[in-house]
Amino acid sequence: MKTAVTKFFPLALLFLSSPLMAQDNTGSSNSLGLALLAAVVLIAFFVLVQVADNLLRIQAKKVGPGADPDATSIFPSVRSLFRKRLPKYVGDAAVTDLREGYDIRLEGAATPKIDGRIKATTFAMQPPNFLGIAPIPKLAVEVGQKVKAGDHLFNDKKITAIKYVAPVSGEVVAINRGERRAITEVVIKADKEIEYRQLEKFDPEKGSREDLVNYLMDCGAWALLRQRPYDIVADPEAVPANIFVSTFDTAPLAPDNNFVVEGREEAFQKGLDVLNLLTSGKVYLGLSANGEEAPAKAFTEAKGVEKRWFRGPHPSGNVGVQIHHIAPIGAKQVVWTLGVQEVITLGAVFTEGRFNAERVVAITGAELKEPKYVRTWIGANVGELVKNNLSNDHVRLISGDVLSGRKKQAENFLNFFDDQITVVAEGDYYEMFGWLLPSKYTPTVSRTFPNFLFPKATYRADTNTHGEKRAFVVTGQYEELLPMDVLPQHLMKAILTNDYDGMEGLGIYELIEEDVALCEFACTSKQPLQKILRQGLDMMHEQG
Questions:
Q1: Nearest to residue 382, comparing CAs of 369, 396, 402, 370?
Q2: Global pTM?
Q3: What ranges do the domains of the chain cover?
Q4: How many CA atoms lie less than 13 Å away from 258 in the CB half-sphere?
C-alpha cells in the first residue's frame, strides 16, 4: 500500500498543476487548486496513518495475543465508540473483548436452587469419556462385587498407574460392551448412604512432584486432568507449560458456576494450590466480564493464580478460546485444562481425604415441566434425573449442551465431564418451503429471519437441522463465529484431504470439538465439523 501511495502522490500533483498553469493564475483558479492540493495531501496522510495503524495492530498481536486491538490502535474503531462500557467490578484490569461469536438464547434455564427430592440410584464410569485410553481397559472389578466410592474400577493398559475409580459405593450390576467388545459402561447400583475409601494423608506442599503425581493417579483424581493438544487424558510424564481453568460457561443453558461453587470455596482454592505444584508455568483463571454482577468471590479472590477477564458472546467461555488469547499452544507444547467442578473434586481429595465425586447438575430445556439444579454424583443415570419432569415423550435427552453434547437414552448415564442435561423436542418433521417463508421464530445467525430485531428473545429449540448435507462451499461464516486467529473452513478441508502440514499450519492443535460447535450450528453446508475435527486430531495424535 505504501508503494501505491508513493506512486499516486506525484501523479495527483501533476494532474492538479495542469489546470493551475492554464488558468492565467486567476484568484478563483488558485483557490480551487489549493483546495484540491490540500485534499490530496490529507488523503495521502490518512492512507499513510492507516497503514501505520494496521502495522501497529499486527505487531501488538504478535507480542500479546490477548491484547485489545483498540488499545494498541492510533484511532479507536467506530464499533468501540458505541460498545457497552465495562462493568465497575473489573476495575483497572485488562479485558479481552471478543466480538466474534453468537449467543443462542433458549427457553428452559435452570432456576438457581437445588431440588433435593431428585435422587439417582445407578451410576456408571464410561471408558469412552476418556480420550486416549485403550477401548478395552483392564478391569479391576466384576459383576456382583461391592465397591466403595474411590475404589479402583479399571485402568488403562498403556499407562497402568492411572486408576479410574467408582463415583459412589454400591454393587457393580453390569459391565456393558459396545462394538468390537469395547467396554462402554461399568454400572454401579448405589447404596443409600455413600461409603468412601479413605485415602492416606498426603501433604502436597511437602512431598515431591513425582509423589504428588503418583498419589493423584492412585486416588482417581488424575482422570480430572485433560491435556491439549488433542483433549486427551493428561500424560503423567509431561510437565504442562500452563494450566487453564475457565470459571464461566457461555454455551446455551449452561450451569451458572457462581452458583455451583457456593459452599465449596475451600475445596476450589485447594484444587488451585495443587495445580500450581503440577506446572512449570502458571495457573490461569478465566473470569467473565459479561454480567452486571461480579463473579463469585471464590473466583475473583482466588490466590496463586493469574486472572484474565473476558467479555463477549459464546464461545468466550470456552477454555480453548481463552488459551488462544492468553498463551497459544503449538505442536510441541502441552497444557492442561479443568472445569470448576473438576477443580473442586481435586481439592476435596486433600480437604476431605476422599474422592468426592459430587456434582451439581443443571437439568435444562423447554421440554421440562420445571428446569432445576440437582445434587448428585459423576455418571448419574439420565432417566432418573428427569423422571416425572418431562412435558411430553417426544424429546431428545442430551448429556451436555445442545451444541457439543451427546445424545442419550433414559437408560444411559451422564458423561464424566458433563454437569448439564438438556431436553429438547425431536425435530423429525419437514418444513414446507423452508427458508422461503422467513416468518418462523427460530434460533439462527442468518438475517433471513427477523430474529436479529429481537436480540434478547429466547427460543424453543428442537433437533431439526433445517436442511441436508450439501457441497462444502466457502461462506466466511465460521470466521465470524470463532474468535481465534485460525481459518476453520480451510482447516476442515485440510483434514478431509489428509493434508498434515496444512492441518498443523492452520491451527488444529488449538481446537477441540466444542470450539467449532457454533460453526457447525451455523454451517450452510450442514457439515459435521466436530466429527471432522476429531478425525483430524486423532490423525495428528497417531502421527505423534
A1: 396
A2: 0.86
A3: 2-83, 122-351, 465-544
A4: 13
